[in-house]
Write a structure and sequence with these properties.
mainly alpha, 6 helices
Length: 226
C-alpha cells in the first residue's frame, strides 16, 4: 500500500481498516516513511554524488588520453563519455519513473541511487575499454583514417564487451529471481542500465567520437578556404 506521508495515528487507522477492525489478522512486513525533509536531502545528495562522479570522470579521461590529442583533443573523449553516461542514466531512470507512474511498487530510494552510481562505473569502464583500444591503434598508425581506426577498435573489443555484460547480467538475473524483495528493484534498474551501457559504448560513444572528428575537419577546411 502506498500513501502520502502518514502520522502514527493515521497509520494505526489504516491498519484498522486493512484488518477490518481487528477481525482479520494482518502482518506488517515493512513500513517505510519518506518525509519532505528526508526526500529533499536524498535528492540533493544524489544529485551532488552524480555531478562529482561525472566531473571526476571527465578529468580522468582527459588526463589519461593526453597523449593522443590528434585528431581530437583528450577533452573530447571525456565529453563523449559523459554523453554516453547521460544516456545510460536516463534509460533506467525513465523505466523506473514509468513503473512508478503505473502504481508499481517502486520509489526513488538509496538503493536506486546506488544502482545509478554502479551503472555509471560499469558504463564508463566499458566505454574506456573501447577508447583505450582506439588510443593504442592511433599510436600504432595502422590505419590513416580516424573513422577506420575507431571502427576496428570497436571490432576488437566487441566480443569482450558482450561477454562481460552477459556475465554480469547472469548474476543480476539470479539476484532478481532468487534475492529478496528489497533487492528486486535494485537488480532490475542495474540490469537495464548495464544493457544501455553496453549499447552506448558500441553504438553511441564511438560513432559520436567519429562525428565530432569529421565536424572539426570540415570546419578546419572551411577556415582555410576563407
Amino acid at each position: 500500500i502506498r500513501t502520502k506521508s502518514l502520522t502514527e495515528e493515521e497509520r494505526q487507522q489504516l491498519m484498522g481498516v486493512v484488518s477490518d477492525g481487528g477481525t482479520v489478522q494482518v502482518v506488517e512486513e515493512r513500513f517505510n516513511s519518506i518525509g519532505p525533509t528526508i526526500g529533499a536531502e536524498l535528492r540533493e545528495k544524489a544529485t551532488w554524488s552524480i555531478i562529482l562522479v561525472l566531473i571526476a570522470i571527465v578529468f580522468y579521461i582527459a588526463f589519461a588520453f593526453r597523449g593522443v590529442s590528434h585528431p581530437v583533443s583528450s577533452w573530447t573523449y571525456g565529453f563523449v563519455a559523459i554523453v554516453a553516461l547521460v544516456h545510460d542514466v536516463l534509460i533506467p531512470a525513465g523505466v523506473y519513473i514509468a513503473m512508478g507512474h503505473y502504481y508499481l511498487d517502486v520509489q526513488i530510494d538509496v538503493l536506486f541511487v546506488t544502482a545509478i552510481l554502479t551503472i555509471l562505473g560499469f558504463s564508463i569502464h566499458d566505454t574506456i575499454v573501447v577508447f583505450d583500444r582506439t588510443r593504442e591503434n592511433l599510436k600504432l598508425r595502422t590505419w590513416k583514417e580516424f573513422s577506420t581506426t575507431v571502427g576496428h577498435s570497436v571490432e576488437q573489443t566487441f566480443v569482450r564487451s558482450i561477454n562481460t555484460s552477459l556475465t554480469v547480467l547472469l548474476v543480476i538475473l539470479a539476484l532478481y529471481f532468487v534475492g529478496g524483495e528489497t533487492t528486486k528493484n535494485f537488480a532490475l534498474t542495474l540490469g537495464i542500465g548495464i544493457l544501455a551501457g553496453t549499447y552506448s559504448s558500441i553504438f553511441l560513444a564511438s560513432p559520436l567520437l567519429v562525428a565530432i572528428e569529421e565536424w572539426q575537419t570540415k570546419r578546419a577546411l572551411r577556415s582555410k578556404k576563407r
